[in-house]
Amino acid sequence: MAEIPVDEKEKADLAAQFGDEAAVTAFLEKFRGHLHFSAPWYAEAGCDWSEDAAFNARQLIKHKHWFDTWEDYADFRTRLKTDTQLHQFELAADAIAGGDITTLRTLVNLDPDLISMRSPRGHHSTLLNYVGANGIEGWRQKTPQNAAAIAQVLLDAGAEVDAWGDMYGGTSTLGLVATSVHPVKAGVQEELMDVLIGHGADPNHAVAPTYTHGLLILACIHNGRYEPIHYLARHGAVVDLEAAGALGDLDKVKSLFAGSPAEKRALSLCWACQYGHTPVVHFLLGQGLSVNTFANGTTPLLSAAFDGQLELVKELLARGADMEAQNDYGGTALGQTLWCLYNHRKPAHLEIMEILLANGAKVNDDWQFYIDDQRS
After folding, report:
1. How many structural domains is the chain composed of?
2. CA gyration radius for the chain?
3. Residue 77 three-state SS
4. How many whole angstroms separate alpha carbon 360 and alpha carbon 148?
5. Which residue in 35, 45, 166, 309 has the most C-beta neighbors within 10 A?
């Protein structure tokens, strides 16, 4: 079945953003039954393909806007026409995402209560939470170059620096900034964290206890955000054994090892392998951890191969690492490396592929094309 054209998806996405039921319904009717709609996101939105397109259009629209029911979304749309403060809050959220500091200042000066107001959407964010570009409506998940100045305006106006939004079980703006890719891509993550921490943001009150045990460094690495973890450690974020492995802090690993449970020891080893912290890997293996330890859906070899840690891959293979162990997605070290070559490429991935093949890694029937493609 042919892919749905990208421009069709983009138009439907924009239609959902603007609450255009007719356009989203037409999109669903046109491509009804397409495999694209089997993606988990549609189930999360509450879609039911035994219902008609109009029903599912409403499900998609209310989900995109962070409402649990269509009735809640419809009420929000009605309020926008009559509630001046809500309308101004929405304009301010747009100004934050767009880096429009002049409009933001004007709106906050007109109504200082906007600073403490919360969105009626399911994440219940403050305006400062919107600076995190994370866990909010998709079209506002972007970080402008002047994000730090935007945050400064809000904080100067009295924004509560550690106010939590309800996304991810509860998260502060610092937690959102630290775990979001958008400030990283904009090159302003550390500058933004400086502003927040300078105003008293607590790195140990940034994520919910139900989310990575309330530890911000763990929230970062479990979200693929390695960039801020050393910064956070320097600014007082709690470091447990798992985090110490990711940081490559050998002294901390040694001091925490005896008092930490087996799961944390295994996680520390896998993160150390992923981020290339060889001394930590040597210490943990020397303490009796298996080279085939399995934790968080991965093994030391899978972890090292994923991030292109060539020398560690060689060493782990020499120590007897199982090349056919599978991650949570069913990928072996070779299968995962092939995926990385197309989606997460690091300089050493091609050589890692060749090393795994030379060591006898099993090749699935449909992999040879990709292997030949990478060799060409």
Report:
1. 3
2. 24
3. helix
4. 51
5. 309
Same domain, yes or no: 135 and 197? yes
| Helix locations, 33-170, DSSP H | 40-44, 53-64, 70-82, 84-98, 101-110, 127-130, 147-156
What local confidence, expressed as pLDDT, does residue 32 receive?
86
d(CA 297, CA 352): 20
Residue ending a domain, among 190, 205, 238, is 238
Residue 306 main-chain phi, psi, to 5 deg: -60, -45
Tell me the two tokens of residue 218: 């763990």
Question: pTM (2 decimals)?
Answer: 0.93
∠ CA 143-146-151, nearest 5°, is 85
For range 241-259, the mean pLDDT: 98
The answer on 280 and 213 residing in a single domain is no
Range of the domain at 263: 243-375
State the pLDDT at residue 40: 82
Residue 2 has pLDDT above 80, yes or no: no
Collapsing DSSP states into helix, strand and coil, what is residue 207? strand
Q: Are 231 and 113 in a shared domain?
A: yes
**pLDDT surpassing 90 at residue 310:** yes
Whether residue 35 is predicted with pLDDT greater than 80 in this model: the reply is no
Nearest in space to 196 (alpha carbons), one of 167, 168, 237, 166: 237
Q: Say if residue 59 is in the same domain as residue 196.
A: no
